[in-house]
Amino acid sequence: MFWVGQFGVVDGKAQEESPWVGLFPDTGRARTEETVDLFVVVEPALPGSEDYCRDLSQAIGKQFRERRLSLTGGILRALKAAHENLRDWNRRSLKQHQVAAGVSCLALRGGAAATREAYLGQVGPAAAVLLSGDSLVRLEPRLPDAVEPIGLHEEFWPDFSRHEIQEGDRLLLLSKGLASTFSDEELAEALRPHPEDTLPVLYGRAKEMRHCAAILVAALAEAAA
Asked: Which of 49, 107, 108, 114 is nearest to 82 (CA)?
């Protein structure tokens, strides 16, 4: 069983639904091995970009669903469309009014399976963490064309990674600023318990920030769920 939880902080206040988070479950069919759920965390990268983040996450979700492609192809298409929307705005705006954002897009395939394929596409600023067994890995865009936010430059290319999420694993998408407040040891300690106990630990740091968000995907044993 897969458990999903999230929170957002907007202007220093916790919100159940925030502009930085997009949850797009696959509701069009019964849960099968071909079910694909999409999770998005958007992070404003320039002053004034905050007002565009909700529309940006919704546009990414809509574009991803419009055509059946490979999961990486769907993420790429959605991010390119979002990038072009921001580029169009910036071409018509003064430099001080330009907007840009970092994005983490997680496509999770296999709704009825004990193990699910996870495809993560990131454009900076962005952060994610995978805890699998005793191994914790931070996931951030590292390709030269992926470290700059969408909307600013003519070309970009997301940093993609593929993971198999099995029982006991945790995959966390979060704002880069929030991720930087935790050491690897602190993240591992926060992620190991039941996920309902993890989010309050993350929020303990998040409440000190003006804007941030987190989405936690946890693979639970049936008894634990």
From this structure: 49
Domain span at residue 122 reads 2-219
Q: Is residue 149 part of a domain?
A: yes
In a domain, 171, yes or no: yes
- Name the token pair of 137: 């890995």
Residue 225 lies in a domain: no
To the question of pTM greater than 0.90 for the whole model, the response is: yes
Q: Determine contact, residues 224/170, Cβ cutoff 8 Å.
A: no
Alpha carbon distances (Å) from 12 to 18, 127, 180: 12, 20, 17
DSSP string, 46-81: STTGGGGHHHHHHHHHHHHHHS---HHHHHHHHHHH
Q: With beta carbons less than 8 A apart as the criterion, state whether 81 and 59 touch.
A: yes
Structurally, how many domains does the chain consist of? 1
Residue 133 belongs to domain with CATH number: 3.60.40.10
pLDDT tens-place string over residues 11-41: 999 988 899 999 998 876 667 777 899 999 9
**Biggest CA-to-CA distance, the chain:** 56
